Amino acid sequence: MSDHHHHDDDHVSEHDRLLSGPALRVKALESLLVEKGLVDPAALDELIDTFETKVGPRNGARVVAHAWVDPAYKQRLLSNGGAAIAELSLVGRGEEIVVLENTPKVRNMVVCTLCSCYPWSVLGLPPVWYKSAPYRSRAVIDPRGVLKELGGEVPDDVEVRVWDSTAELRYLVLPERPAGTEGWSEEQLAEIVTRDAMIGVAPVTVPAGSRR
Fold first, then answer.
1. Does 49 have pLDDT greater than 80?
2. Among 18, 19, 16, which Cα is nearest to 1's?
């Protein structure tokens, strides 16, 4: 994530640079299984991508979109995240989920400094960068710098709040609804809500050509 990552050996991926010790061991095991023909790397990549970027985050996107169109639900979500999320038949693994609302003056950002605690029920598998040591340390030391790299610069008059997850307490960011989405259906809104926006490192934007 830091600048020096972009100047290392071109043959080493950003993914590999951010791997922690345990993750490196897992990757070594994966490589061995692939080498012996026991695992199809394409199938494995597709499975991981499905849970990391499609199935899991789509659950969280449903929650966010519903909160955007239903003010009463939004209040319940902010008051008791776990109970409100359960209303949509999405249930976690026993951990408490607190929902943090982004506003024009406040940006919330989630990290787990001790390991990689993450709200799996609404976001699926945590991305590699979320588990990496550079993100876990820099999110606390230089959150504005991290946000600038991952999602764009945050104005000086906007407060950045960093929230540290634990095994018992997880966080979900309720991002600001972007301008230009008035009149959109809940399903249309859910399509533009990203995992990174619900971690708090990027705003939700309207893709070019997606205005309805």
1. no
2. 18
Distance CA 134, CA 116 (A): 12
d(CA 193, CA 61): 5
pLDDT in tens, 22-34: 455 556 666 766 6
Q: What are phi and psi of 64, to 5 degrees?
A: -65, -50
Cβ atoms of residues 169 and 118 within 8 Å: no
Q: Which amino acids are annotated catalytic?
A: 112, 115-117
The pTM for the full model equals 0.75
Distance CA 5, CA 34 (A): 27
- CA atoms in the 13 A half-sphere facing the CB of 189: 24
Give the Cα separation of 110 and 97 in Å (integer). 12
What is the spatial distance between Cα 106 and Cα 114, in angstroms, rounded to a whole number?
Answer: 25
